[in-house]
Amino acid sequence: xxxxxxxxxxxxxxxxxxxxxxxxxxxxxxxxxxxxxxxxxxxxxxxxxxxxxxxxxxxxxxxxxxxxxxxxxxxxxxxxxxxxxxxxxxxxxxxxxxxxxxxxxxxxxxxxxxxxxxxxxxxxxxxxxxxxxxxxxxxxxxxxxxxxxxxxxxxxxxxxxxxxxxxxxxxxxxxxxxxxxxxxxxxxxxxxxxxxxxxxxxxxxxxxxxxxxxxxxxxxxxxxxxxxxxxxxxxxxxxxxxxxxxxxxxxxxxxxxxxxxxxxxxxxxxxxxxxxxxxxxxxxxxxxxxxxxxxxxxxxxxxxxxxxxxxxxxxxxxxxxxxxxxxxxxxxxxxxxxxxxxxxxxxxxxxxxxxxxxxxxxxxxxxxxxxxxxxxxxxxxxxxxxxxxxxxxxxxxxxxxxxxxxxxxxxxxxxxx
Length: 417
What we know:
The protein is an alpha/beta fold.
């Protein structure tokens, strides 16, 4: 029988969790209650408060006595993550469910993010109608808005909680059809303005015997790819679209954080990298562009997405950052430079065509990249089929048991490899 772990603060949500437990049992799954509260529980748990606090190295009595809610939530976040990680490793967790407000959701989200991709995770929360990124992170957490507060049972909350129980029970019991012998997994990054390149590279890699996971480079996309790499899922990386670095540098809305483009190098994974969409910084609707950027080259991509061209100064800094990150890599690394444009709209005649900005990016890379990085400069734009084929072929060569030595590219004498 599948087991769903119910994690919550049973000092305030006892009736709600008892109701959830009953609904899960009706669905033919077992329910394990984990108490992440710190005061007297309203119902008994299978794993109590002291064990959760102890998993974080904290003392429950001290947390109670301190009267510091923030410190208590932080400790129980750490403890809950350790408990569910252990339960999953022991084969005692097939699904995870948490309900509550911001505090309970924070504890539940910390635990959910500790579980591997593919393990069903559901949070019913009063904050699910707002910005859920701090809760979900880069994992496959599902969130449902509770509509009413999780404070007692009523005809609305009972419907929402019953739906949640049915959803997590179904997810916990579902089986995934076997795909046969697994092919090596490759992570690839894509944006709308690099779609032709990534589509072609994916098709070529699939022809060569790989399974390609494509990640939309929206901040969480890059984080998700690197989380899978750290989780041991990926054999190699085709990081064609590194646009998230521009948002991190300039202050756009799609940053993946300062550590982006470091995971594959730290792990020693073969990686083939390019400069896709480094011509742009992303914002929401036109009116959301910060006032300090008025006067810049701004392009309304659609009603909800506004793009801003990166300047030569910003591009030079991006080149230095990429060079520093790739130069620290411990595994095979190749950088492919599309000399005729880094995105669909940066080619000649496009709204973001800016040779000075491009040359600032390319020059910084040439000057800063380490000897361990193959540098391939091709007289093509990023979406040219030949460019995509070259990247895919080089990654395939790196992944072969008898990979050929690094080789130079075809277009410029200063290239090395």
